[in-house]
């Protein structure tokens, strides 16, 4: 991100008051296992609105996504933080981690462990997953140095972009009963799904394109708030 940092240092950027109205929206989904329903989360700010969503079935989340529910297109970024838990079974150290599946940029499905998902470095690209809207199907998610995945196109109003097709735990159920290793509690299985958006209209992102333009927009916002 050195080009973006240099761009930010060279130039002071000021948002118009109208732009500030639609600065930021966020949705958060916590806890895989709860007594209450884990509903989609919606936060509204001006004409920029997003909604995070997923479907929960037992020990599996599917269709982890963000949808533009406002009237304006927006740059979006997402995080899906997957827990990787270490425990001991006798003298042996083991790992409890869900499997993550997503689409690659060439539209094939890839499956990795939670460790693999969390270890992807800045610049890694994945595709938009199964169930994404036509407007964003050819787009990519790019991981940036702040740990967020940035969509390479502005998210249109009404469009849906899937980051992860599934996140699932295996071998934790016995006759329908959840059985956890010693020292692991149910709340430790919580998977954080977090999304933010900033308007793309009238946002000065210099010469940057794709996910770098989205990253620059959020960096500009960060600078304005300091």
How would you explain this protein's 3D organization?
It is a single chain. The chain contains 4 helices and 16 strands. By secondary structure, the protein is an alpha+beta fold. The strands form 4 sheets. The chain has a 6-stranded antiparallel beta sheet, covered by helices on one side. It starts with a helix and ends with a helix. The relative contact order is 0.25.
Task: Outline the secondary-structure elements.
Elements lengths: L1 H9 L6 H5 L3 E5 L11 E5 L2 E10 L2 E9 L5 E8 L3 E5 L2 E5 L2 E5 L5 E5 H6 L5 E3 L12 E4 L5 E3 L8 E9 L4 E2 L2 E2 L13 E8 L10 H16 L1
Helix percentage range: 10-25%
Number of strands: 16
Structural class, judged by helices and strands? alpha+beta
Q: H/E order of the elements?
A: HHEEEEEEEEEHEEEEEEEH
Overall form: elongated
Please outline the major beta sheet.
6 strands, antiparallel
The average pLDDT is 81
Instruction: List the strand order in the largest sheet.
Output: 1-16-5-12-11-10
Number of helices: 4
Which segments are poorly predicted (pLDDT under 50) over 5 or more consecutive residues? 12-24, 29-44
Q: Termini distance?
A: 20 Å
Rg over CA atoms: 19 Å
Q: How much strand content do the residues show?
A: 35-45%
List the main descriptive attributes of the protein structure presented here.
six-stranded antiparallel beta sheet, 226 residues, elongated, 4 helices, alpha+beta, 16 strands
Summarize the structure.
The chain is an alpha+beta fold and 226 residues long.
């Amino acid at each position: 991100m050195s080009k973006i940092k240099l761009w930010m240092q060279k130039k002071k950027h000021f948002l118009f008051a109208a732009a500030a109205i639609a600065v930021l929206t966020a949705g958060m989904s916590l806890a895989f296992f709860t007594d209450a329903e884990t509903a989609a989360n919606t936060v509204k700010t001006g004409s920029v609105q997003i909604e995070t969503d997923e479907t929960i079935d037992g020990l599996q989340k599917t269709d982890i996504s963000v949808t533009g529910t406002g009237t304006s297109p927006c740059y979006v970024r997402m995080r899906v933080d997957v827990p990787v838990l270490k425990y001991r079974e006798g003298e042996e150290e083991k790992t409890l981690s869900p499997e993550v599946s997503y689409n690659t940029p060439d539209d094939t499905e890839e499956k990795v462990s939670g460790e693999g998902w969390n270890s992807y470095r800045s610049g890694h690209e994945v595709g938009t997953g199964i169930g994404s809207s036509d407007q964003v199907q050819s787009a990519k998610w790019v991981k940036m140095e702040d740990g967020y995945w940035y969509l390479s196109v502005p998210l249109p109003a009404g469009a849906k972009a899937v980051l992860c097709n599934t996140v699932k735990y295996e071998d934790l159920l016995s006759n329908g009963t959840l059985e956890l290793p010693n020292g692991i509690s149910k709340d430790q299985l919580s998977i954080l799904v977090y999304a933010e958006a900033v308007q793309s209209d009238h946002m000065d992102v210099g010469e940057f394109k794709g996910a770098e333009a989205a990253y620059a927009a959020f960096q500009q916002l960060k600078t304005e708030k300091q």
